[in-house]
Amino acid sequence: MSKKLTARKEDYSKWYNELVVSADLAENSAVRGCMVIKPYGYAIWEKMQAELDRMFKETGHQNAYFPLFVPKSLFEAEEKNAEGFAKECAVVTHYRLKTDPENSSKLIVDPDAKLEEELIVRPTSEAIIWSTYKGWIQSYRDLPILINQWANVVRWEMRTRLFLRTAEFLWQEGHTAHATKQEAIEEAEQMNDVYAKFAENFMAIPVIQGTKTANERFAGAEETYCIEALMQDGKALQAGTSHFLGQNFAKAFDVKFATKEGKLEHVWATSWGVSTRLMGALIMTHSDDQGLVLPPNLAPIQVVIVPIYKGEEQLAQISEVAEQLAADLRKAGVIVKYDNRDTYKPGWKFAQYELQGVPVRIAIGPKDLEKGSVELARRDTLTKEFVSQEDVVEKVKSLMIEIQENLHNRARDYRDSHITEVDTFEEFKEVLKTKGGFISAHWDGSSETELKIKDKTKATIRCIPMGQKREEGKCVFTGNPSTQRVLFAKAY
Amino acid sequence: MSKKLTARKEDYSKWYNELVVSADLAENSAVRGCMVIKPYGYAIWEKMQAELDRMFKETGHQNAYFPLFVPKSLFEAEEKNAEGFAKECAVVTHYRLKTDPENSSKLIVDPDAKLEEELIVRPTSEAIIWSTYKGWIQSYRDLPILINQWANVVRWEMRTRLFLRTAEFLWQEGHTAHATKQEAIEEAEQMNDVYAKFAENFMAIPVIQGTKTANERFAGAEETYCIEALMQDGKALQAGTSHFLGQNFAKAFDVKFATKEGKLEHVWATSWGVSTRLMGALIMTHSDDQGLVLPPNLAPIQVVIVPIYKGEEQLAQISEVAEQLAADLRKAGVIVKYDNRDTYKPGWKFAQYELQGVPVRIAIGPKDLEKGSVELARRDTLTKEFVSQEDVVEKVKSLMIEIQENLHNRARDYRDSHITEVDTFEEFKEVLKTKGGFISAHWDGSSETELKIKDKTKATIRCIPMGQKREEGKCVFTGNPSTQRVLFAKAY
Q1: Do the bridges between strand B208-211 and strand B223-230 make them parallel or antiparallel, or are there none, so unpaired?
Q2: Distance separating alpha carbons of residues A115 and B193, to the nearest angstrom
Q3: Which of A203, A446, B149, B459 is deepest in the core (most CB within 10 A)?
């Protein structure tokens, strides 16, 4: 834990991997591509969950739980969705092990316990949920259905990275059913808005809202809305998606409802999700070479108090002040840890909390006792100051807001300075190589062009930004006419 | 929903199944043995989770997340545990599907995507967690580890029933690591206490704390503590277990720590869990022939207000009073729903909320407007009274406490009157047949006797109660000497 991280400039990817492990966020497990989320990392995820859950309920959604497994026949019912996930799904074929007849300390799959129909471990739950909704929906009175699920899903990715791409990950998936197309579209847009607000206000991550091109859409969706964030290495990260699914799943599972007028119609659907991938976005938006930097909203510990002392008597004197301060801060709603462990030295503790991104560190030593002060250090700016003991609570309260805002502003400034308008393909390649970030360019709207650009540059269209002004122009690759700019980037 | 439930006397099991489905708690899914937990049922589970989570954190535990899959080689490392779960586990053998060459609209398992090592869907996580703890524990400084996980697990049960026994269920599993045997035993006992307090104070379910006999112990445990509840049909239900695992898993996964004195020793372990099975316990402790009865602590809706009206004008007048009342109740911390839907009649609503166990129903009609009153109905006693509008908030506040206590008392009285001391096997069989409940009898301590009794009566030893006085006696079956009574019952 005392080892320094690789500098971001030197090797961003290595820095990321080292940080995730050394800040005690997560680690690789004995299962290929699956991670263990450690308590400190999980505590951050819990804060995200709590806030999202609150926002979902505020917008009228309820939680429920659907099975982990999808029978193969249901899985393949919606063709595009099945096609999209078939290549990466874990398949349960047997339901029992038995003792190996050749080695009684070993177990083998019992060939007599083969399932009649294979079960897919859910990569996403549209299929199992829509087969269930069929039983719930008869008339317009049963609509809308506004349900969210917190769950684990599995996608057998070949190249995995902690939080960013793992075979198993945690997420929430909303699945809603509506009587009209318009209402479903509004729901999909509303939930993308919720994600954007959550990212900006709670995670301090600036995002661009937009829609995906056909190539980048969710398998089975008619429109995919997304929020796109920019990481410190100039690569984009899709932080959340919300899909208008049209009537595709209703048709695949024969889900119809009687309208007020008594006509039978197929139901309209949306789905939307964010995952533990957000942990990756959080890390790569705010952190630095010293380690994790956390916005106060997401910090499991907002303030740590470290005593600097020699001998038990001094510790007792400092503890008296520290414990009073901790109590006062807790009363003010701040999450405080007083770390008086004698198994670790103050220097070790400083480095550890810096690495773990605790927003504010307060050190109290014998001189502070004399002067009635404390030393207060900000993680976001790495600055220190002395504060009088009687002012600490107010100071910390305002810092919680200030640090949250500072991180947001810093990330937005970086992002804004990394959106580059280009009008030629030469420029496109040059910016991508030297600067990275989002490239705002005209595109002729064809999948073919998009794929050719991807092939030549590895950049994809991250989104067609929403609420953007129309602008006549020429496609940066083909020169064909275009009516608006789209955002390209290399992406996670 | 308007169909009456089968009476409990007539067919308890049928009553249970009908109630779970018609009160919108859960239903069977397209996947054999797996359930869909519907929003209303899930909202109750969320309340249980929130309270348990609070209690776990208060006792120093943190949440984390470990992989869904256990590689077969890890699964089989702790022999007894492996043996205990091998016969009912879902096995992932492949990681890809492909288009069926004989039918392009179908998918088949891709034989080229066979896993080198099969993965077991976790039936419990000791194996994967202890293989992880090996990397976390070097010295006494790393202990104790106090971790809990909220997760889904899979046990391929042949006979399933909603909430009580399902192939997939939701649970929490605590997994702790300690430096000493004593500390681990204290942890296991502490968590069983937490479960008992939760059941009694929060769920209003009286439980008996005890230890399991060797036959009934968790596979891999040295001691299993449990809380046992009694259902209305005289059958017992194990509502939670806490295991002292000794050094079994530490030895299987070679987890050692350096003591303060520098010696290397194996770590001591516990694990403990409760699951969505608690929903079954809740239902079968409190509910009646009219449907679910919920203690206020667990009610997603604590008070429902139903307007009784003819025409829009009357509805507007009633709504004014109802909405003010709802606001006042919310201010007092009560969860209220004002159901002014015009798509359903009051009678339908009354039946529905009765079926769903809403603790208090308030009806407001035109006469109430005149008199300044409301009609208030209690779900637990099925009694009604008129209450003046200005007294409603205070009345409801005190009812929330009163109903919670009443349900607890009622269940405890039933339970207490269904613990029967018997001293002969004839009596044993007679009580089991005519009255059910717990039978307190002497037992000679041998597994053989226990299994013979089970074989003859289907009754098992539910627990050896804790803190019970010693009493010399003779085994009810063999006549061999015994030092204390144990509790037998038929069980879920």
Answers
A1: antiparallel
A2: 41
A3: A203
Nearest to B81 by CA among B253, B289, B287, B236: B253
Interface test with B, best of A1, A27, A29 (most B CBs within 10 A): A29
Q: Are B377 and B393 in contact (CB under 8 A)?
A: no
Query: pLDDT tens for residues A314-346?
Result: 999 999 999 999 999 999 999 999 999 998 999
**What string of DSSP letters covers A346-395?**
HHHHHHHHHHTT-SEEEEE-HHHHHHTEEEEEETTTTEEEEEEGGGHHHH
Q: How far apart are alpha carbons A152 and A161 in whole angstroms? A: 17
Q: From 3.90.1300.10, 3.40.109.10, 3.90.79.10, 3.30.110.30, which CATH number describes the A419-489 domain?
A: 3.30.110.30
Class of domain A301-399: alpha beta
Query: Alpha-carbon distance A203 to B423, whole Å?
Result: 66
Per-residue pLDDT tens over the stretch B332-356? 999 999 999 998 999 999 999 999 9
- Write the single-letter amino acid at A1: M
Find the CB nearest B91 among A36, A94, A135.
A94
Hey, are the CB atoms on B65 and A170 less than 8 Å from each other?
yes
* Nearest-CB residue to A37 (from B64, B91, B141): B64
Name residue B306's beta-bridge partners.
Answer: B363
- CATH superfamily for domain A12-91+123-286: Bira Bifunctional Protein; Domain 2 (3.30.930.10)
pLDDT tens digits, residue range A110-167?
A: 999 999 999 999 999 999 999 999 999 999 999 999 999 999 999 999 899 999 999 9
How far does A468 lie from chain B, in Å, by closest CA? Answer: 38
Residue range B12-286, CATH number: 3.30.930.10
For the domain bounded by B301-398, which CATH number is listed? 3.40.50.800
Mutate to test the interface with A, among B54, B91, B153 (most CBs of A within 10 A): B91
Nearest residue to B402 (alpha-carbon basis) of B372, B373, B378, B437:
B378
Distance from CA of A19 to the nearest CA of B (A): 17
A150, A118 Cβ separation under 8 angstroms:
no
Q: Residue ranges per domain, chain B?
A: 12-286, 301-398, 419-489
* Minimal C-alpha gap between A417 and chain B (Å): 37
Q: Which residues in chain A are closer than 8 Å to B88, comparing Cβ atoms? A: 95-96
Residue A1 has pLDDT above 50, yes or no: no
Per DSSP, the three-state class of B23 is: coil
Q: Which tokens is A276 given?
A: 């533990």
Size of interface A-B (CB pairs under 8 A): 190
ipTM, 2 dp: 0.97
Tell me the percentage of chain B whose pLDDT exceeds 90: 97
The one-letter amino acid code at B56 reads F
Residue written as token pair 């550890």: A352
Query: What pLDDT, on the 0 to 100 scale, is given for residue A42?
Result: 98
Closest CA to A361 of A324, A405, A306: A306
Q: DSSP code of A216?
A: G
